[in-house]
User: What shape does this take?
Amino acid sequence: MTSSIRLAVDIGGTFTDVALELNDHQFTYKVLTTPRAPEQAVLTGIQAVLEQAGIGLDQVDLIIHGTTLATNALIERKGARTALIVTEGFRDSVEMAYENRFEQYDINMERPAPLVPRYLRWPVRERLNAHGEVLLELDEQGVFDLLPRLQEHGIESVAIGLLHAYANSAHEQRIAAIIRAENPALSISLSSEICPEIREYERLSTTCANAYVQPLMARYLR
Assistant: This one.
């Protein structure tokens, strides 16, 4: 039985490591990471181990890839300029979070700032109940009125997180359709797709994080 040929790539902040497993042999290569174009280091490393092993890329059965690109973007606050569209009255949910604190007795503790600042968190009129039933229809004109702000603020990515959207995604989907019709290349993340779970803070913050790094990862993966 022939063993599979496996190729693994890990992008770190300083080095990119590539390893190739061929039968009982392993071939490795370490190259400096190229932050502005991470794929360059990846391609260099892959070419090096393939030459060491004397095989072509088409002979590789499995490629495993890990990267800290998204994590680094979050930590260093170097992600996309992101806007958040929320149900009217819930603009500050991502900032209020919970009463509990991770440093319980530190009276000088400061929470990390939200990925999306308040002036880029935009409310729209609509309301669902916890079962997903419509209590207030989406104010579509209010959504259209937001469109000029996207260009005005140089928005690269939009997070959409409406109250109880985990139970009914129709309003989120409609907002996304309106935005895409005007800005088809804009990155859009829906809370009903990214984190369709109860509890607004977790759902909104997760969707914001996805929107914040999605353009970076899309450019890299292309």
